[in-house]
Amino acid sequence: MTIKFDTPKKILATVLEKNKLNEVDLEIIFETRENVSFLPGQFISVNCGNGMYRSYSISSSSMDKNKVGLIAAVGHEGVGSNYLKNISIGDITELVGPSGRFVLPEVLKENIVFIATGTGIAPVLSMIDYLMNTKYEGKVELYFGIRNTKEIFKEDLLKTFKNTMKNFSYTLCFSQEENPNTTSPWKKGRVTDIFQVGDINNTQYFLCGNPYMVLDMAKVLADKGVSEQDIYHEKFTVSKKTA
User: Fold this and answer.
1) Which fold has domain 111-233?
2) How far apart are CA 107 and CA 202, in angstroms?
C-alpha cells in the first residue's frame, strides 16, 4: 500500500504562540481555521508577503488537527526570518501545505535512528510524537547535533519522550563545547563522528538538518552497506542563507 499525499492547499491561520527558544531559534504555533491533516515530517510554506513563501518543517503533533508548529532559525537577515521575527500573536497568516515526502514509511523496522542538527530536529519531533502516540514497540534513537549549550532547545520534550517511551533514547552531540551544562546524555563531537552504524538489516535512518551533514551521513551509511531504501531525508538544496 502506497502512502497517499494530499494536494497542498491554502490555509488561513492565526499566530497563537511565539516562543524564543534561544538566541537564534524561534518556535511559532499557528491555530488554523480548519482541520489540517499532515504526515509527521512534512513541511508548511509561510506567505511572507509580496508573493514570497518560505518553507519550514512542521514540529508539532500530527494528532492536533488545528495547530501547526514550526521551528525556524532567525539569526540572520532574510525574507522568512524577518517575517517571523516581526509577526505578533493574533496576526493572521496564509500557509500553504502540507508538502514533502520526508515521512515515516507504512512499514517500520525494529530500529529507527534519527540524526538531526539544529532546526532539522523539527520534523523529527513530530515523528517521535507519532511513534509515541501509536505505541511503536521498536527501538528509537536520536542523535541531535548542536554547537554548544546555548543552542539547546526542546530538551524538556526529549526528556518527556524518554520518560514515556521505554524504547527511546537520545544523545546531544556538542561540536564546540567540552563540558556542557546539561543533565541529558551527551557526547563531544559532530554527529557524523559520534554515530556508529549498528544492525543495518533491521534499521531505518532519518536524516535532517545541515545539508552537508545529510549528504555526509548518507554516504557513511551507504558505505556501511545500508540500503538506499532505508535512508530517508528531505531533498532540500544547499544554498546561501537568504531566508
Assistant:
1) Rossmann fold (3.40.50)
2) 12
Q: What is the DSSP string of 153-190?
A: -SHHHHHHHHHH-TTEEEEEEESS-SS---SS-EEES-
Q: What is the pLDDT of residues 161-191, one digit of tens each?
A: 999 999 999 999 999 988 888 889 899 999 9
**Model pTM?**
0.92
Report cis status (omega within 30 of 0) of the bond before 98.
yes
What is the spatial distance between Cα 102 and Cα 166, in angstroms, rounded to a whole number? 25
Return all residues near 104 (Cβ < 8 A) that are at least 6 apart: 39, 40, 41, 127, 130, 131, 206
Please tell me the CATH superfamily of domain 9-99, with its number: Translation factors (2.40.30.10)
CA angle 11-25-179, nearest 5°? Answer: 150
